[in-house]
Specification:
The complex is a heterodimer of chains A (299) and B (251). Chain A is α/β, with parallel strands linked by helices and 299 residues long. Chain A is built from ten helices and 16 strands. Chain A has one domain: TIM Barrel, CATH 3.20.20.70. In chain A, a hairpin with a 4-residue loop joins strand 12 and strand 13. In chain A, 54% of the residues are buried. In chain B, strand 2 and strand 3 form a beta hairpin. Chain B has five helices and 17 strands. In chain B, the strands form four sheets. In chain B, strands 12-11-10-9-13-14-17 form a seven-stranded mixed β-sheet, with helices on both faces. A four-stranded antiparallel β-sheet of chain B has the order 1-8-4-5. Chain B folds into three domains: 91 residues, Beta Barrel (Elongation Factor Tu (Ef-tu), domain 3), CATH 2.40.30; 109 residues, Rossmann fold; 46 residues, Dihydroorotate dehydrogenase, electron transfer subunit (Dihydroorotate dehydrogenase B (pyrk subunit), domain 3), CATH 2.10.240.10. The chains are: A alpha/beta (299), B alpha/beta (251). The interface between A and B is medium-sized, with 33 and 30 residues.
């Protein structure tokens, strides 16, 4: 049997398969044993509860999904009280996704979560396109990224994953700034700016007008971003963006991802992650290659 | 809520706009409550990506059926999928209607909003309710049963006019305890005003675009007034059935 174990930052994953923040939750435990995943990434948590954006928040397009959820979440306190104990029951790495509107806010959230056991890492969401002055406002400036990450690095020993947006001129510069700031891992990509219009009403199909685009349509964009970033950083990359099945996942791994995350496809086939884990074993056995040798092996 | 691949057991064309698709699965049929829904998709169809939500139309002889209106690629594909071919079914999902007992009940549906009511009707009959059923459509194409009081906008079947006008007239002369409704937003909004006027309870089943169906993605949010405050609720998990009085209807 192929060995799928991999070190991601300070964590050891039993396999390189996880989920994209915002597309997965405890509700999936009714469908399969979440302990089978290499890691679980929670929905993004903020210091205070966020009601989310005005509906409509979704629009499906020809080859993907537009969303403007607006990081709706119950806030740190409720998350610690209600959700975290449930996540902690699973025998896998628990990664809490975090966003905020200031360095102080990010710091407060991490300081509080650091007191909780059985959290294995933080994904710093500096790339959500759906909240103003938050998230993406950090993710598009390399100086701000460096300041934020180097500050958070002093606060926590746990694995810091920085989630990057493709909506920048040079993702390499942002990636290098995060690495220099002390990030252990990078995850990319977050959603791509997108928009769809109802030609009858001539209004945007999402209330927030500009939304985040995900699904199969963004796969080539994501793969080239992974490929470019992998060339300029030494830390591992969790690749994501339109992954539906094993062949999509393999493309990301060959492009330079040490692990992969399934997002939108969780809504289509909730077992996609499990299918990929199985498919990966089969592929490695057939190709007689070690997983580590596959990563970034693009010729 | 299970996620199953099941072969289409039966398919019944009603007219060029509507069809009924039926699956035979004991476990599934036993779990369903009226007003709940399933997410259906032909796994062979790549696009559109998302499964589409459909409420349970009826359960008969352990068979679960869905009444579907052909509106786009997904519903067209479901219609074209042959008997014996597999469809993925995720459900039952959502809360469903609260069943009133020994009450005077009025069901009001518009167009494809008829879908959840044959199943509800059965449960209400068992609960010894006194039931009147009003249904409205644009034309005879939108009429599903001769056993209900039908309204059409073009007058081709039943009474000519809007179903909501019929409801208003009915409530002026008859006492009703609860109204169950499903249909276009504009109909439900009008119905809410009418029910308030006559002080009748109202349960509405809502439809929105939906991604996960289980409360994860928060994509299907609608505005609800709770304790005097506007909050977002998820149609998939908090609904699809809501107290009509609490819904903030679109302008």
């Amino acid at each position: 049997m192929a060995d799928l174990r991999i070190k991601i930052g300070k964590m050891l994953w039993k396999n390189p398969v996880t989920v994209a923040s915002g597309t997965f939750g405890l509700e999936f435990a009714e469908l399969f044993d979440l302990s089978k995943l290499g890691a679980i990434v929670t929905k993004t948590i903020t210091l205070l509860p966020k009601p989310g954006n005005e509906p409509p928040r979704l629009a499906e397009t020809e080859a993907g999904l537009l969303n403007s959820i607006g990081l709706q979440n119950p806030g740190l306190e409720n998350f610690i009280k209600n959700d975290l104990p449930e996540y902690q029951k699973f025998d896998t790495n628990i990664i809490v996704s975090i966003s905020g509107s200031s360095i102080t806010e990010f710091s407060k959230v991490i300081k509080n979560l650091d007191k909780q056991p059985n959290i294995d890492g933080y994904e710093i969401n500096i790339s959500c396109p759906n909240v103003e002055n938050e998230g993406i406002a950090f993710g598009i400036d390399k100086g701000i990224v460096y300041n934020l990450i180097s500050h958070l690095r002093k606060i926590t020993e746990r694995t810091i994953i920085v989630k990057l947006t493709p909506n920048v001129t040079s993702i390499e510069e942002i990636a290098k700034a995060a690495e220099k700031g002390g990030a252990d891992v990078l995850s990319l990509i977050n959603t791509v700016y997108g928009m769809a219009i109802d030609i009858e009403t001539r209004k945007s199909k999402t209330k927030n007008v500009i939304a985040g685009y995900s699904g199969i349509g963004i796969k080539p964009i994501a793969i080239q971003n992974v490929f470019r970033v992998a060339k300029v950083v030494k830390i591992p990359i969790i690749g994501m963006g339109g992954i539906r099945n094993i062949s999509d996942a393999l493309e990301f791994i060959i492009a330079g991802s040490s692990a992969i995350a399934v997002g939108t496809q969780n809504f289509v086939n909730p077992f996609a992650t499990l299918d990929i884990i199985q498919g990966l074993e089969k592929y490695l056995n057939e190709q007689k290659i070690h997983y580590h040798d596959l990563i970034g092996s693009v010729r | 809520m299970p996620y199953k691949l099941l072969p289409i057991f039966k398919k019944e064309l009603i007219n060029n706009k509507y069809f009924i698709i039926t699956f035979s699965d004991y476990e599934m049929a036993d779990q369903c409550h009226p007003g709940q829904f399933f997410r259906l998709k032909n796994p062979q169809q790549n696009f559109p990506i998302l499964p589409r939500p459909f409420s349970v139309n009826n359960i008969q002889d352990k068979q679960t059926s869905f009444l579907i209106k052909i509106v786009g690629e997904s519903t067209k594909n479901l219609f074209e999928t042959k008997i014996g071919e597999n469809i993925s079914l995720h459900g039952p999902l959502g809360n469903g209607f609260k069943i009133a007992r020994n009450k005077k009940v009025l069901i009001v549906s518009g167009g494809i909003g008829y879908a959840p009511f044959p199943f509800l009707l059965k449960k209400l009959e068992k609960a010894k309710d006194e039931i009147v059923f009003f249904h409205g459509g644009k034309s005879s194409d939108d009429i599903f049963s001769a056993n209900v009081i039908n309204f059409t906008e073009d007058g081709s079947v039943g009474k000519k006019g809007l179903v909501t006008d019929g409801v208003e007239q009915f409530l002026q002369k008859n006492q009703v305890d609860i109204v169950y409704a499903c249909g276009p937003q504009i109909m439900l909004k009008k119905l809410t005003e009418i029910c308030k006027q006559f002080n009748v309870d109202l349960q509405v089943s809502l439809e929105t675009i939906m991604a996960c169906g289980i409360g994860v993605c928060c994509g299907c949010a609608i505005r609800i007034v709770e304790n005097g405050k506007m909050v977002y609720k998820k149609v998939c998990k908090d609904g699809p059935v809501f107290d009509g009085y609490t819904v903030v209807w679109d302008e």
